[in-house]
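Fold it.
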Amino acid sequence: MRADSRKNMALRIDILTLFPEMFTPVLGTSIPKRAAEKGLVSYHLTNIRDFATDNHKSVDDKPFGGGPGMVMMCQVLFDAVAKVEAEDDRPARRIILSPQGKPLTQALAQELAAEKRILMIAGHYEGFDERIIDGLKPMELSIGDYVLSGGELAAMVVVDTIVRLLPGALGAEDGAADETFADGLLEYPQYTRPREFGQMVVPEVLLSGDHRKIAQWRHEQRMLRTRERRPDLWQEYLQRNPDALEPKKKKR
């Protein structure tokens, strides 16, 4: 396969930010780094300030009507998006990181992992001029009901969540299959050596070598954990799986 063909098969992630240096350690470490080395994804950082047109490199201004903080201006972002999107023929799924956005879930991460190209805009200051939302029509995405100083950390979370779902990123094809939220359930308990630690011991079933019983135990534990720790997810799981048996007893 030609090198340019492999490049076009990789997920392209563009990140527009005022602080591109924040991303270097994250994208150059662990799974994001290995996925890029395998040709599964490519990262492209763009400094929004490079598109400022005045001598002060201004990217924000005071809000009309008054109020605290500064608001990111339209022109720099429209110009940045136009320049970046012209670098690749594939249309980009535009995303703005915002606490007002759609919550990031595992299901949405799987949807985004199937895209060919994603363009994320990490804002800063008080927010965006609303015409950026109206004109660029991005998906507004939130990683939780809290406020950060900027969208950079949120963008890193989104990148990691998406990239680890790319086939081959974790090494094994089913590496993410049993993880928390993979099918709406939390993950089962994990153990390793030693078999005994203080008064705590590894459940005997995990030492039995009976793969059917181990799989059954793990599924039961996933249901128990979800019911106990996240009753909201448990109710959603029961709605999707009405024939699911209620776990009766916690086996440790």
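The first strand starts at residue 11 and ends at 17.
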